[in-house]
Amino acid sequence: MKVDLHTHILPERWPDLRERYGDPRFPHVEHYAPCCARVFIDGEGVREISENLWSPVKRVEECRACGVTLQVLSTMPAMFSYWANAQDAHDLARMLNDHLAGVVRDHPTHFAALGTLPLQDAALAVRELERCVKELRLPGVQIGTNVNGRNLDDAALFPVFEAAQELGAAVFVHPWEMLGRERTSKYWLGWLVGMPAETALAIGSVIFGGVLERLPRLRIGFAHGGGAFPVTIGRIEHGFKVRPDLCAVQNPVNPRDYLGRFYVDSLVHDAVALRHLIGLIGAERIALGSDYPFRLGEERAGSLIESMTDLSQAVRDRLLFRTAMEFLGLEADE
Known about the structure:
It is a single chain. This protein has helices at about 15-20, 55-65, 85-105, 120-135, 160-165, 190-210, 210-215, 230-240, 245, 270-280, 305, 315-330, and strands spanning about 5-10, 30-35, 35-40, 45-50, 70-75, 110-115, 140-145, 170-175, 220, 265, 285. The protein has about 325 residues and is α/β, with parallel strands linked by helices. It has a single domain, classed as TIM Barrel (Alpha-Beta Barrel). The strands form 2 sheets. The protein has an 8-stranded parallel sheet. A 3-stranded antiparallel sheet has the order 2-3-4, with no helix packed on it.
């Protein structure tokens, strides 16, 4: 088995959100050739997309080609729209979640899905989280690393995490609106450097902010191997020890104690980095993730894991499917 925890999907077409909500910043899609389209935001083309981003049939075909048993679908982070009016963002989240649930319903042996939430309003976010789990039968949600510059330890977001723990919903955190954007526009550095830093900031926030301490049963995972956090844990722990007056202001627990308390995906593009990650947090907390179908992802899901011949079969199984199934709260026969 292979379970790919980190993949993205969009509807083939959606209403003109600029007209629906009266704001030009909402994404829209223009199909300009068979199987080809562009996503525009505020008049600027931000991404070329092809049919494997919207066609379940094409996705199933490509899954079979690389041996993926189950893809876990989530929306493209540009659709989060946390900056928007909360009611509009809630309406959009419902639309996207209905689409996700519909794809799973039509192809239940090939796909699971993580919903999206209007995090700029915690009450609406909790309401939509409950709908995702109870009505749409989704195992969890995908959220961004910050909400309009507020980190994930922000008190306004705690009720969402609290509800996720109560509902048994998995929370997968994906970087977006990366810090330092004004200095990372060249050389694609926003994606190469900004994303790992943004993810490390999110992990540090939930640790130092006491989110994991207060919610010990919360299943939370982070994209891209946890970003820069795994290679900076030594510095983070040292800072905690020498300047507790600055670091331990909300949580007195050593940050290293949380290694193994959260999940990450395997998308690190480097065998040395993946071995370090396994040694640091254990294969029990690392799930296959490819970022399909985007170019910065792994072209053939699981190829890095499969290339590491020194891994035992038990570790390989953990990385390829068992950890993802546990994170999602699913059994293999489901």
